[in-house]
Write a structure and sequence with these properties.
Low-confidence stretches: 1-34, 291-300
Order of helices and strands: HEEEEEEEEEEEEEHEHEHHEH
Strand content: 25-35%
Structural class: alpha+beta
Number of strands: 16
Mean pLDDT: 80
Helix content: 10-25%
Oligomer: single chain
Distance between the termini: 22 Å
Number of helices: 6
Radius of gyration: 24 Å
């Protein structure tokens, strides 16, 4: 099986590969390698969601029944591998990133998408193409989360008011989202990227009595995330008190009413999410938790 041949067919004339995809098969071997008519190709590209540029060195994980295979995108963001369709019913594809997955326009790297491609191998086809889009890490930050806290308490608000601009009507549409949903997003991201180490940064407003509230707020979010199965040493909880106000005291002082002032102070009472590194070692038994077992081919 020659991956280099497959890749060359998908490259524009004049370009040359610096390397080709490699496949790591855990305990996998085919009982009928000579029967090429049963082989199907699975291929695709990985893009940067922001500018659609191609991303190399991304791990594409394929889950087949009770074992995994892994393939890396090449220098053109392309991946490809072949499997025997008679051996399996379906394959689930997803991505993994690390600190080496960077581009010229994404210096801080990428987050693995939680999207899964589920491929039905029983379909009458000899090739499947599935692409992925990755979200950038912005200045070592994470997703846009708004974890806001009650005044003088390390307690999350029940809901946070958000808005969208509706350009056609030149108006604003308001909606509410629950902080609990943002906690789930943090957990999902840490599950998808098992090498990420994060900081939960707590901030308080200038009008609060206890300057240590920012520490307590950050720790409260950490405890919620750890309670859902994330190792505690992957999360650093740090309070910055009122040293990094999102809304300055000068801007708050210019507000016309007490309600407006309170609303601006509320924005400062927050915990934000920041990625520190991709250096956390894969936990012992992590592959086992992915239901990885030795594969035994079907008997004829």
């Amino acid at each position: 099986m020659n991956n280099n041949k497959i890749l060359n067919q998908n490259t524009k004339p004049g370009k040359k590969f610096s390397g080709f995809c490699f496949v790591i098969l855990f305990g996998l071997y085919f009982s009928s390698l000579g029967q090429t008519k049963n082989l199907i190709e699975i291929k695709g590209y990985v893009f940067d969601r922001e500018d659609s540029s191609l991303v190399s060195n991304v791990n594409i994980i394929g889950k087949l029944d009770t074992f995994l295979l892994s393939v890396k995108t090449d220098s053109f963001g392309f991946y490809s591998f072949q499997i025997n369709k008679n051996q399996f019913k379906k394959i689930v594809l997803y991505t993994q990133t690390n600190k080496y997955v960077k581009t010229e326009t994404a210096a801080y790297g990428f987050l693995a998408t939680d999207f899964r491609h589920i491929i039905d191998l029983s379909k009458d086809s000899i090739a499947f193409e599935y692409n992925f889009q990755l979200q950038r890490v912005w200045a070592c930050g994470g997703p846009n989360l708004r974890l806001l806290f009650k005044k003088n308490e390390a307690v999350l608000l029940d809901s946070v008011r958000e808005f969208d601009y509706i350009s056609e009507k030149d108006s604003v549409r308001y909606y509410y989202r629950k902080p609990a949903d943002d906690i789930l997003k943090i957990n999902k991201l840490l599950e998808n990227d098992p090498t990420i180490i994060i900081e939960l940064s707590g901030h308080s407003s200038f009008d609060e009595k206890d300057p240590k509230l920012s520490d307590d707020s950050a720790l409260a979010i950490k405890q919620m995330v750890v309670a859902k199965g994330i190792p505690a040493d992957r999360i650093i909880a740090k309070g910055y008190r009122s040293t990094k106000l999102k809304i300055s005291n000068g801007m708050i002082a210019k507000a016309k009413s007490k309600e407006e002032k309170n609303a601006l102070h509320q924005i400062n009472r927050r915990v934000v999410f920041k990625i520190l590194s991709f250096d956390y070692p894969l936990p012992t038994g992590w592959l086992a938790k992915q239901n990885l077992h030795k594969y035994k081919p079907k008997k004829k």
